[in-house]
Amino acid sequence: MESWDLQSIRQDRTEVKAAEETSRKKEQIKEIYTTEYQEAVKERLETAKESGTYTTEKMLVEQNPFGTNTLSLYVYFATEEPVSVSYVVSVPDSEIAAVNELGMVEQVYDLGNYQLHHDYVFDDDGNLLILATDTGKQTVEDCVLKLNPSTGEVSCILDLEDLLGDYKESLGMDQEDLDWVHINTIQWMGEDSILLSSRETSTILKIQNLNTAPEIAYMIGEESFWEGTGYEELLLEKDESAGTFSNTGGQHSVTYVQDDSLNAGEYYLYLFNNNFGVSKSKPAYDWEQIEGIETSMKEGEESYYYKYKVNENNGTYSLIQSFKVPYSAYVSSAQEYKGNIIIDSGMQGIFGEYDASGNIIQEFEMELAGRTLRVDVDRVAKQANGAVLMHYGDTTVLCTATASEKPRDGIDFFPLSVEYNERLYAVGKIPGGFNKREGKASENAILTCRVIDRPMRPLFPKDYRNDVTLENLVMSVDQDCSPELTAMLGAAIATSISDIPFDGPISTTQVGLVDGEFVFNPTAAQKEVSDLALTVASTKEKVIMIEAGANEVPEAQMIEAIFAAHELNQKVIAFIETIVAECGKAKHEYTSCAVPEELFEAIKEIVPPAEMEEAVFTDDKQTREENIRVITEKLEEAFAENEEWLAVLGEAVYQYQKKTVRKMILKDHKRPDGRAIDQIRPLAAETDLIPRVHGSAMFTRGQTQICTVTTLAPLSEVSETGRTG
To answer: Which residue of 343, 526, 683, 696 is most buried, as measured by CB atoms within 10 A?
Structure first.
């Protein structure tokens, strides 16, 4: 007789259904995201608008008419008075909805006299197992419902009173609405078994024969709590061979995990151990008798991450991993992710990632200008050379530093690229119009890239030719915490902790002047009334960049502002140094592209410094370039047989020229164009250079000239809007 593998048949059936559903959704997506579909919706809405008179009392309202956003409303009405429209989305807790990949509700299932709470899970047949409460009973009765998504059929397959009725009766309860068991987690374990977590009893239960004759296979909980109830016989025995441990108190988010390295009948359970003992149905029970269990919701208490190993073969469980996490008496979660543990201490509003030893993935904080600056290291972008998730107030910026493994061939410069990516979603906006993609970088983004580049570029080795990219992605914006400043700091930190050679760290501070007082990293409101917009970047030793705009501010006050910013920068640099000390990588070796020193010496013998000074000492750019060309040709002729030197000769001449100019300015106090140190280039302005246009002007600064032309369109080309407007 042929044997049948029912599990495989179920799996195959599930996979076929999933493939069919995926194919159907893809076809739906293709249909909705077409010009024809969207135009048809527009025409239908226009027809609806014309078919009636819509006012604030009677509005045309359609939910998600375009099919692209399930939470959208199309609202149309006419009014002569200014009005605003708002709406609230609510879902009855007696219903559960199926939502597709477009966010569209495809079907709503009514749970009848049951209210959904906490958790649900799919079984092997694609049925939904739902935690719910029977509203027809006086006390809160936790049940497990089975929902067939294909037919919509809902059935109650487990009432906890049927399994724990004797315990409930022993409590002698006559209170209405008493939540006597409170199931907060359901896990499918296969073979018609589920795992439940009861917060009220601080107990984990395995239920077997769920669809036929449900019964408790075992429980994990405090023995003294169940003593005398008859249920203590179902408790697994603690295996404390590796050390004693306390049972859980009010645990949440119990997760069942199979592991191929374990024997049959063995598996892991991990959970958030709230460490909070409370039982309203058994108020006389003294949780304080259990070492480590808290009975208050005070700040400063401790919760734990627990990982159990269950051995059903010998009826034991052991604690194999545990560490402290921020305290939360109730709402909380623990999930494993790529070998780390994600902890959500819900009541504290704290979310963190921990390694296997319980060390939080590096998180650093400091107070900066009255707001909290937080730096998360190694949380995201783990493949980058260096990455930090920056939080300043509610502003969040992801900053990464990456470098190529080898230098780029055929270049004589450092290939540094700085990106600052603004996204409309970061400020709660959606791109409008037909084109839903955001366009090119804004002027502000380009300028921010430059402000980041300018102080950082000189701190990379001058002979470094590996491609380096500093990427700054703005993820959320707090208008009072500058995302530009946050990105500047993040780029510096990401590079400093990376293995990319960098002579940092650096810090940047913005300074405003409001009512005669300096304001550091000003808010949006302060910037509006500030007489000063100053940005100062510093290393530990000195100021390396200043960018400023101002109303009339005394020179002494400007200097004071620069020094004040530099002082604040030192505090930030000290903070960054603690991060580098904790998380910094060793800087990698690289192929040097430096000009050989012997080449410089050979060049000076052929072209003495006096000759180079004479070549660059002219205010005419073309003359200066011609002089340098002649010098370069002379050197190429002299080194014609040295291919290695010829390859870097251009860079060597440039550096020689640069050093000569610096020496002339700093030591001899003369500029190449003959100007004094305190003399600016001649400025000139002319108007009406170009005939027949409506306006023209040219501005000249040295040898730099800009000509601007303004022209108005003729009246014949005025648009219909222009005529009526």
So the answer is: 343
How far the first Cα of the chain sits from its last, in Å, is 88
Strands 416-421 and 466-476: what pairing? Answer: parallel
Shared-domain flag, residues 337 and 205: yes
Q: What is the pLDDT of residue 428?
A: 67
At 261, which CATH number? 2.120.10
Helix-strand-coil split of the chain, %, nearest 5: 30, 30, 40
One DSSP character per residue, 349-401 reads: TEEEEE-TTSPBS-EEEEEETTEEEEEEESSS-TTSSEEEEEEETTEEEEEEE
pLDDT in tens, 189-206: 999 999 999 999 999 999
Q: Comparing C-alpha atoms, which of 307, 302, 390 is closest to residue 345?
A: 302
The position carrying tokens 């006096």 is 610
Q: Note the helical H segments in 106-244.
A: 160-170, 223-226
The predicted pLDDT at position 32 comes to 75
- Give yes or no: residues 652 and 706 share one domain: no
Tell me the CATH number at 377: 3.30.230.70
Residue 456: CB atoms within 10 A of its CB come to 26
Is the CB of residue 191 less than 8 Å from the CB of residue 171?
Answer: no
**Nearest-angstrom CA–CA distance, 277 and 393:** 35
Domain count, the chain: 4
